[in-house]
Write a structure and sequence with these properties.
Blueprint (H helix, E strand, L loop, with lengths): L6 H53 L11 E5 L13 E3 L9 E6 L6 E6 L1 H48 L18 H49 L6 H29 L6 E4 H11 L7 H4 E4 L3 E5 L1 H18 L4 E7 L2 E8 L18 H10 L2 E6 L5 E6 L13 E2 L5
Parallel strand pairs: 6-8
Antiparallel strand pairs: 1-4, 2-3, 3-4, 5-7, 7-12, 8-9, 9-11, 10-11
Helix pairs in contact: 1-2, 3-4, 4-7, 4-8, 5-7
Length: 420
């Protein structure tokens, strides 16, 4: 139950319970002291009065003894029945209707006196003291909880500051110096632990980037060899038409492998924070030109529609996304024409003219285009990529930009033209 409460609330509850315990302890102590003090006062008063009356009876055995509603002195054999046979000392008999009566028995056997006093007024004061103690308990617990709430705010403030600092950390590992902002206490130790953990993440990230850089270099070498060999073979005039078609497919496959390798490396390293202001149409044309060698009629099969769209993204990431997407679409339907419509809210790719030649299509065992790597790149950019089908079961690709990026933020997007 307490684990669901905030740290400040738990400290407040602890203070309140401590105040309640201390207040209850004080109330019981005050009650005990008051009753003990009452007993001492009554004992001393009755003992003094008894000595006085015993000396007077020694001088005059027939001396009269006082009797009133609040105080009376009896010889033991003349005392009320319920007060006879008591041992010497102070007694507080439990008599119905006689709350507050005390009896003191003094003197030698045979000459004992019984002094009876009614201290009902003091009992009334004790009732008032009981009510006062209840008030003290309530006020003490409430005041302790309030003070606990105030002190807890100052006590846990460093914890909340540390939590805010951790929440503001970038998604990519980066060295931190949180420990310098806190004292040499438990919170400072926790901040130092977070700094050390962040440094370990940075070191691991560096090792990972080094691995991907080496892997990228080693994997690109055989791809370049394949592409070079295909170019040499295509320049041979003795190559037949069927062999040229096969070489073209190898060339497209090598290009696709290179694009997927680039997408994989970029998605593995992350898009990073280095962004530039670029125009979407310019990067889209560069991506189209990049795949034109393996797809000679690319310019006639990719049409761009839309106004001026300016983005703040890494150019290489955007070009890789578009190149992989264009290449996959052209392989899916080699004779189809695709329209890329873009606006400030995103862009959409759909077939303007769907002509699929099954003999030329690169077959896939899964559904859709298999855009796993560029989907991850889109997520890193905050974009949403979705593959859809229209009423004629023709594939469409929609990429949506986040709404907050269309209002002049740091990674803002501005565009003209029709929406999607």
């Amino acid at each position: 139950m307490l684990n669901r409460l905030s740290l400040r609330t738990r400290v407040t509850v602890a203070y309140g319970l401590m105040g309640l315990i201390l207040s209850v302890g004080f109330a019981f102590a005050a009650k005990y002291v008051a009753e003990d003090y009452e007993h001492i006062i009554v004992e001393k008063v009755l003992e003094g009065q008894a000595q006085t009356f015993l000396r007077e009876l020694d001088r005059d055995p027939n001396a009269s003894l006082p009797h009133s509603a609040e105080f009376a002195v009896y010889r033991e054999n003349a005392a009320p029945r319920e007060f006879r046979g008591l041992s010497p000392g102070i007694h507080e008999p439990d008599l119905p209707g006689r709350e507050g009566w005390h009896a003191g028995v003094y003197g030698p056997p045979g000459e004992r006196l019984v002094l009876i006093v009614d201290i009902g007024v003091i009992e009334t004061l004790e009732d008032y003291l009981d009510r006062l103690m209840l008030l003290i308990i309530f006020v003490g617990a409430t005041l302790s909880a309030w003070l606990g709430w105030l002190f807890a705010g100052r006590t846990v403030a460093p914890v909340y500051r540390l939590a805010d600092a951790v929440a503001r950390l970038p998604t990519q590992p980066a060295p931190t110096q949180l420990e310098l902002a806190f004292g040499r206490d438990a919170v400072g130790q926790l901040a130092g632990t977070i700094d050390a953990y962040q440094q370990r993440l940075v070191d691991a990230g560096e090792q990972e980037r080094l691995f991907y850089a080496n892997a990228n270099h080693e994997l690109r070498t055989p791809i370049a060899v394949i592409q070079g060999a295909v170019e040499v073979m295509r320049d041979d005039p003795d190559i037949g038409t069927d062999q040229r078609l096969r070489l073209a497919r190898i060339d497209r496959g090598a290009l696709e492998l290179g694009l997927l390798l680039e997408a994989f490396m970029l998605s593995a390293r992350g898009v990073g924070q280095a962004r530039e202001t670029i125009e979407f149409l310019q990067v889209a044309q560069q991506a189209r030109d990049r795949i034109a060698l393996a797809n000679p009629d690319t310019a006639t099969r990719l049409k761009f529609e839309g106004g001026r769209l300016v983005l703040r993204v890494p150019p290489r990431v955007l070009e890789c996304i578009l190149a992989v997407l264009f290449h996959r679409l052209l392989n899916l339907a080699p004779a189809s024409t695709w329209t890329i419509q873009f606006s400030a809210h995103g862009f959409q790719v759909k077939p303007q003219e769907w002509i699929a030649r099954p003999s030329d299509v690169v077959r896939r065992s899964d559904l859709g285009l298999g855009l796993m790597f560029i989907e991850r790149l889109c997520r890193d950019l905050g974009w949403h990529l979705e593959q859809q089908s229209d009423a004629s079961d023709r594939l469409q690709i929609r990429v949506t930009f986040p709404e907050e990026r269309t209002h002049g933020s740091e990674y803002g997007i501005s565009g003209e033209g029709d929406g999607l």
